[in-house]
Amino acid sequence: MDDPFLYFGSLSLQERQYQIANFIGLALNPAHDREIAHNAMTDPLPFADSSIRKIQSQDVFEHIPFTRVGFVLDEVYRVLKPGGVFRLSVPDYRSPVLKKRSIYDHRGKVVGDLMMGASAYYDPASAQARVRFAAGGDSHIWFPRYETVLHLIVHSNIRHCAIRFWQAWLDDDNHICEPVPDDEMFVWRAFPHDPRSQGRPISIIVDFVK
């Protein structure tokens, strides 16, 4: 393909991106010829420096250990063409929708999402409540907020891009909720497409232009 676009995760037939012939899915277990085998947590992107015009990650990075996300962002920056765009979206754990289904520690920090593979249990050895995550990679294992995403940005090469946040809770009371451009990199879990949001962010959505 002369001008491939990259899509982190499975590129299912139901995704709008599947209807755009340029998109290639980066999947752990490829299911069709529009996907290639790729483990984002460990594998460099199999493309040359400055060779890709569009890259999207939609609800994927929260499944990768937080300490490995910087590696992925460095790889994205490496393969983006000058002027190329990377669109990142992750669930926003300041969203009231996600807060309602979350498990918290004694400090009020989210430590699990009951809808996304977490369960709570009592550990007699420590006399504390603990959280376990379902096996198989479907669980959210960290819980993005604006400041954690900023931390990842400033500690990776992606910081050298021009950066535009479209939707995010900046703190517990203030948010950005601008319409995301309806281009090839469509985001499902975003206002106005997701009716659960009620006009407020449900995802952190940010564009990076190299």
Could you describe the 3D structure shown?
The chain is built from 3 helices and 12 strands, in the order E-E-E-E-H-E-H-E-E-E-E-H-E-E-E. The protein is mainly beta. It has a single domain, classed as Rossmann fold. The strands form 3 sheets. It has an 8-stranded mixed β-sheet with strand order 3-2-1-4-5-12-10-11. The chain has a two-stranded antiparallel sheet with strand order 6-7. The longest helix is centred in the middle third of the chain and has 14 residues, at 66-79. The protein starts with a strand and ends with a strand. The mean pLDDT is 94.
SSE order and pairing:
Blueprint: E1 5-8, E2 23-27, E3 35-37, E4 52-58, H1 66-79, E5 80-91, H2 96-99, E6 102-104, E7 110-113, E8 118-123, E9 128-133, H3 146-154, E10 162-169, E11 175-177, E12 203-209
Parallel strand pairs: 1-2, 1-4, 2-3, 4-5
Antiparallel strand pairs: 5-12, 6-7, 8-9, 10-11, 10-12
